[in-house]
Amino acid sequence: MTSGGFLYAAAAGACVGIALGLLGVSGSFSTVVLLLSAVLLLVGRKWPILLLATAATAAAALGLTRADLFLQARQQDTIAEFAGKTAVVEGTVAADPDKRATSLRLTVSVNAVGGEEAKGMLLAVVARETAVSYGDIITLSGNVTLPEPFETDTGRTFNYPAYLGVKGISAMMQYAQVVDSATGAPSPQRFLFSIKHLFERSLERAFPEPDVSLMEGLLLGERRGLPQDVTRAFVASGLIHIVVLSGYNISIVSEAILRSLSFLPRTVGYSLGGVGMLLFALLTGGGATTVRACIMGLIAILARYLHRESAALRALAIAAAGMALWNPLVLLNDPSFILSVLATFGLITLSPAIERRLPKFLKKAPQVASIAASTIAVYFYILPALLYQTGVLSFLTLPANVLVLPMVPAAMLAGFITGLLGLVHPVLAFFAALPADILLKWILLVAEVTTAIPFSATTISELPAWVVVAAYVPLTALAIFVYRRNAARIRSS
How far is residue 223 CA from its own chain's centroid? Predict the structure, then answer.
């Protein structure tokens, strides 16, 4: 029995334990599970399958305990107790302010309500022109409410309370009034966000709408400024991932960038790729979503370029279990986390075999072949989860991605240079902005034309969760079979 088997069993066990804890299984049950693992260890020393079960059950006990402690800590939050009341809330801005078309959204770590000590996270919606930054001390006045589920454009019911709960937010304050604010103490993250905002303003001076919103989505993972019709076009064409921070997005883009640097010595190319990912994480503020996406993207890139898929799968198992243990709620309530893990797994297990079977004319263009294989592998594996979450099934996602993704690295590079030059002087940014804007218009054109084609996408009825889980049993078995067969072929060659 290999060490990899124990690692996968432990990672899976930890995730199962966390899920059970979130679904209501008492943390005290972890003692029973731990005793079961001890019995399995005593009985099954000579039986590999029982040793794997021992690792899984011991990790499940850990996951149960972690979920129980996490939920107990969340129960100490008191801000939700003021729901339905008008209150004066004092706290600290705990995330980068989220500027929308007509408002500014603030995540506030609450210190007091009505002069009395309180605890919890509040999402406050204030006037768009409000001057406030990460780390500022702020006093708000307004009606405290609880977040509620809502229906999406595709008829899905979005569990908004669970989504906000991943970020620790348990209450909202719509139409909040800023009573007072004070500049917060200097911090590394505050400094990073200030750089990000300078860069955003530089881009906004260089590009028109909706091009600048698309560029900010590509470089910073922000799609809040995209018009609704453009967002719908990206969803229907299967291109929305390029403006969403995810492991899939970063891995595809990074792979294309690394291929463009293939003329350099291998060590230099990887060093530049690693530095680029680090700069990207710093530029976007180093938030939890960015860090997670960069980790997933880096794992996928290492798998493809170091030809060490087994090491990458182990790293993925450790990363996924570690993130779930850090914040148990991501396991069931964070679509970005779920899709990033699934996409990275599909990319590692299926993409090499698919690329090997592509038509010869595609292989003549390695970058296009790589993107096509990656798109097929990822879309095939995440499809059940995607249908469960969005209900949108795109029939033209492959040609759309093949037409767009080769242009994305060049657009990102030109946009990055534009933003930097714009910090010096707007005139300097013009020369880099021109080719970047042409590429942005091409991306927008592909999305719009693809969506305009009749029957290019369809919306399916809502799937039960058990159907999606059942679909992943044979799908995962197939992915592992393809992965092992491809690995055996490489070893024998």
Answer: 13
